[in-house]
Design a protein that fits this description.
Number of helices: 12
Order of helices and strands: HHEEEHEHEHHHHHHHH
CATH topology of the domain at 31-140: Nucleotidyltransferase, domain 5
Structural class: alpha/beta
Number of strands: 5
Strand content: 5-15%
CATH class of the domain at 31-140: Alpha Beta
Largest sheet: 5 strands, mixed
Radius of gyration: 28 Å
């Protein structure tokens, strides 16, 4: 009885024949739906060419192609103004939509960015021309959902943060390759050090690259906080010292140091962009870490990751506020930087302040 009640609440299920008939009705000239966006246009975005469709009563050629150059995008916007279009819809495929979006936004259009997964399974699309017409029809009858896109200021912050995340990943790869070279030379440094990218590990690697081969002298770089004793550390540093592996170690060390300098430069850009954010729109939500039932509320303090920015990010985000930072598009993978933790590179998204940056999400 409960299942029958649920079925009645949801309505009757459509058969395959009824679904096909519904698809034909949507494709028909008068599908019987209410017009929501009367002055609309649909754009099929491509890497070299964009197909734009307007209503048949707007122009003698309702579908026209435009190039990807800026002058062509400006001509596209002028043609839409001439056709009396106010609302434009396009799919968020790749990054080719971004220049089109920016130009149309400058011309004052209401730009709708929609998820391609909501339209790609619909029937009857065979070409770019039909794709643009299909987007126009769906948007005209209000059958699409608009994706959230942050403001220009927040997009600048997100761009800097995502670039920094890529450098964190590259640094992790360098650490892994250095560890592989050491392992093939039977330099078992990883068995006595928990973090190969720490102060002790990097001093030892730089000394090896500089030409030092004596394990006892290399063990003198041991930090007092290292649990392993100096004799144990010296035993782990006795290896075969193969020339080809030493060359790999030298190159990967150079790459790692270059990536570290790039991360410092990204920190400078990120701090400058955060300083330019307006102070008026104050809305930042920091997620509280839930406590387990029955616990005293005291949580284990996490060690700060060395991948965090070299300035007080929490203080900056508490003073500078973005708009709608709590919203997240369901299709976005965020700007997660939790990469290469096994190589000594833990998550850079530690703490509530860093999670705020990861929540600045959009389809791209």
């Amino acid at each position: 009885m409960a299942n029958e009640a649920n079925t009645e609440a949801k309505g009757p299920r459509l058969t395959r024949k009824q679904k096909k008939e519904l698809g034909r009705q949507i494709w028909s000239g008068s599908p019987g739906l209410e017009v929501v966006h009367r002055d609309a246009a649909g754009i099929e975005v491509g890497s070299r060419e964009h197909y734009v469709a307007v209503g048949r009563d707007r122009d003698a050629k309702p579908v026209q192609p435009f190039g990807c150059f800026t002058v062509e995008l400006q001509r596209l916007a002028g043609w839409l103004l001439q056709c009396g279009v106010k609302s434009v819809v396009m799919q968020s495929t790749g990054v080719y939509w971004i220049p089109v979006y920016d130009v149309l936004e400058q011309y004052g259009f209401e730009v709708w960015l929609v998820n391609a997964r909501e339209t790609r399974t619909l029937p009857g699309r065979k070409s770019d021309v039909q794709e643009s017409q299909w987007l126009l029809k769906l948007h005209t009858y209000g059958l699409l959902r608009k994706s959230f896109r942050p403001t220009a200021e927040i997009r600048r912050v997100r761009t800097c943060w995502r670039e920094r995340a890529e450098y964190v990943q590259q640094a992790g790869v360098c650490i892994q390759r250095m560890q592989k070279a050491r392992t093939e030379m039977n330099v078992q440094l990883a068995t006595v050090l928990s973090d190969l990218s720490g102060a002790t590990g990097m001093k030892i690697i730089r000394a090896i690259v500089a030409g030092e081969r004596d394990g006892k002298r290399l063990a003198e770089f041991r930090d007092p906080n290292v649990k392993a004793s100096q004799p144990t550390l010296a035993k782990s540093l006795e290896g075969t010292w193969r020339p080809e592996q030493l060359a790999i170690l030298q190159r990967q060390l150079g790459d790692w140091e270059h990536v570290q300098r790039q991360m410092v430069a990204c920190d400078g850009d990120l701090a400058a962009v955060l300083h330019e954010l307006p102070d008026a729109e104050v809305k930042v939500t920091v997620e509280a870490t839930p406590t387990r039932e029955g616990s005293t509320g005291r949580q284990k303090r996490k060690r700060a990751s060395r991948n965090q920015p070299n300035f007080d990010l929490a203080a900056e985000l508490s003073d500078r506020r973005g708009s709608d930072t709590d919203r997240r598009h369901p299709g976005d993978d965020g700007a997660d930087c939790d990469q290469r933790s096994r190589a000594g590179y833990g998550s850079v998204a530690n703490g509530g302040s860093l999670r705020i940056l990861d929540r600045l999400s959009s389809p791209q």
